[in-house]
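Re: beginner question about structure tokens

> Can someone show what the tokenized structure looks like for a real chain? I only ever see the sequence side.

Sure, here's an example I had lying around. Input first:
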Amino acid sequence: MFGRGTVDTPTRRSSRLLVLAAVLSVGSSPAAVSQPRSPSPARDGPILFENVRIFDGRTATLSPASHVLVKDNTIARISAEPIETGVNAGIRGVAGNGRVLMPGLTDMHWHAMMVRPTPVTLLTSDIGYSNLLAGAEATATLMRGFTTIRDLGGPSFGLKRAIDEGLLPGPRIYPSGAVITVTSGHGDFRQLSDLPRTIGGMLARVEQLGGSMIADSPDEVRMRVREQLMQGASQIKLTAGGGVASPFSPLDVTTFTEAELRAAVEAAENWGTYVCTHAYTPASIRRSIAAGVKCVEHGHLMDEDTARLMAEKGIWLSTQPFLDASPASGLGPAEQAKLAQVVTGTDRVYALAKKYGIRTAFGTDILFSEALAKRQGAMLASLARWYTPAEALIMATSTNAELLTLSGLRNPYPGRLGVVEEGALADLLLVDGNPLEDLGLVADPDRNFLVIMKDGRIYKDTVPK
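And the corresponding structure tokens:
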């Protein structure tokens, strides 16, 4: 380290120790700490569901009476005949008595950190409080039968880690990290008094919290995408057009340039994953497709030509059954008017998706309202307006799970989700009733979901003894 003849003084020895400490501390750097090897929470022993009729997540019919054995976190065996377990197998039995066993539900557009607080609360509260609030909501989400969510904006990395380590009950989280937006775009929650922005200057409060990041060039976009990937994002979310909740973001505007969107797509693809964009209008959807985006969120204001293009290119549509334009918590009059405009497009977007066979995923995009979150299952049930119960449930299970596979090696939960099949991950619901005949059962999970299992662990069991 030192040249020949250099005197080894106490100061130099201290310097060497500091260098050595820096080298040894690499494993404790923020990059290393952000994605630790999470210890798996202790699971129950083997669990046997006896005499159940299976909705497998793929087909529109129920199986004959069957038996399902869960070991560790997977479905080990499915049999029409009783499964012999042996006297000392230590297996816990769940008496199905002919009830329906189905995959856990999934929501492809969720904001775990933004459900319960109002916008003001979110931007002014300590992040510790926000995480505790989100943790309580995560447990409630799981208890509604939603065992997996795709988080499309917000600092949910710590919440995901806590759930994965078994510190609190909650769904699997596929995190996007911060929403990436432009100055004045959907997700820019600054006030006019915060302008002008200084490139390289102090971050806005929403950026400090990790809710959204503002990027106004391909280079800035590329950097912000890489930051989310560094923290563990499984996919990347950009806002390609205007939105409802942001005060300075008209619905009709198109925000990112194609070059900026391409920078995000390139950075994500370098990590083996994909970009989805918030986009309502034909212009914002078409620009997203031209840039290589794989999934469009919302699409409520699309036209026929755009729907045809999405189908031809195999672009996913992750949309939501927005039917209610009544006032939502925390939204002002201008935002309420934008919401009403979006709601008018709901029937049309589903009609176009069905007409052209667009690959369609289910999500809810509930923001800033604990009361609305309680209607998560009711929103799924509202799909009966356009789909049969079987079509809606297939969408909310195996189809949604297919979209999750676009994350490739960035998938935080390798394995099959959304199905009841041997070898699949054991995320299961035991339903008191037949949801293929009555989709409304999912709107009342407290009463109708007798067992909720995620990753081979039972979190709710109210089967009559």
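Each token stands for a local structural state, so reading them left to right follows the chain. The first strand starts at residue 47 and ends at 54.
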